[in-house]
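Intended use. Records like the one below are meant for learning the mapping from a protein sequence to its folded structure. Do not use them to infer anything beyond what is encoded.
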Amino acid sequence: MKKLQILLFFNIIISIISCDNSNNNQKPIFYTVGDSTVKNGKGDGYGGLWGWGDFLEQFLDTTKVSIENHALGGTSSRTYQALGLWDNVYNKLKKGDYVLIQFGHNDNSAVNDTIRARGTIKGIGNETEEIDNLITGVHEIVHTYGWYIEKIVKDAKSKGAIPVIMSPIPRNVWKNGKIPRNNTSYGLWAKQIADRNDVTFINLNDKMSTELESFGESKVTGTYFYKRDHTHTSAKGAAMASQIIVNELKKLNNSINKYFLDDVDISLPKKQNIFLIGDSTMANNGNENAVGWGVPFPEFCDTMQVNVINKARGGRSTRTFIYEGLWNNAKKDFKEGDIVFIQFGHNDAGNIDKTKFRGSLQGIGNETLQVQRDSIVETVHTFGWYLTKMIQDTKKSGALPVVLSLTPRNEWPNGTVEQRKETYVKWAKEVAEKEKTIYIDVSDSVAKKYQELGKEKVKDFFPKDHTHTGLNGATFTAKTIAEILKKSKEIGLRGVIYLD
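Structure written out for the chain above:
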């Protein structure tokens, strides 16, 4: 019995030592806590918005250290803790971990309202305000911004972790060529808490503002921030903030330096390509009286996330686009994740065996016709056959084909916009259904809007003829298509389409 007790005692001692060694051998972790400027949404760049915490890993030697981004959009220093998010991090902390802290953007909100109820009392003192939270119904004692930041700092220190406080990143707001600093509010209070607790403070607000000012407002807007959003950064803006933080941490000249890589070349998210394949109603024709909708279409796209590549060519049908090698030239650039819009029909009704040799056989079947073109005998197929080939080739590349019906002409038989519903509109839809790909009825969507505007107003869209629009008409069509894309979950472009 005594031997058994001794053996049990030694087993317990060995287990304790093993656990202790296991903890000692664990890599330290960089934890980031903050709001959407640290991690936007799920951290996947949806809508083109990124937080600086999403790029930190690229600067770290992940054989020596790990990183976990626990920031959550919409939170303040108060609600981050009230929601239990800080507790989740605190419970995981161990000696030697780092906690990078940045709050302030949402702390300026109302202390108690029915929208967010997330504000904190200004300053770093011990003032409090008792409320019955209008959202949760919970009786709550609200503290100052500094009180909440200091709680995170003290909690982290109690676990042997190392807190680092950042002032909030600047907003893309300019006055007389300069970005206003927050050095009399949240930036100041963040620094005061850092000084009071003898922890590192990084004045991210000032340093990032200075760097942005070197580029100027016109370049910053649309590159590092979006026109529609003065708070949240693009990938480039987030990477800039991350680089500044790392540069400042390297200056500490202590053991933290061993976790950083040298000469990092930041990898930014690759842009998605949108290819436009079609005729003159889509193409850049170099003619102000014949502007394809593909020309103004990029105005409705976030070109920091997508490239719009217009391969459409005036005067082409499905047949001639393939016959002349335009299709092969375009498809060699398709890759997985790209989207290819295919729209034909206006020229497919042309002559099959003379003049421009651009007509295709009607329908979607496998009928063929041998046509003599000088010394060459060409096998002509149906409109649907050519369209099917484009769809299948696109799928083989890993890209997503989207079939569009042709644009309506400025023709009003019996007072109604003519749409070719029984021919090219119908056949385009049938092919898309047969090939199980996405179909957009541009003809019907635009025609309905034309009908609402009336014949006289629509006439101004067509300065040259009944087929080709000027810039205003092209923009009208492009916006209509953008509206459809904004609603479509299936196509997956909702986050890159802007209608304002």
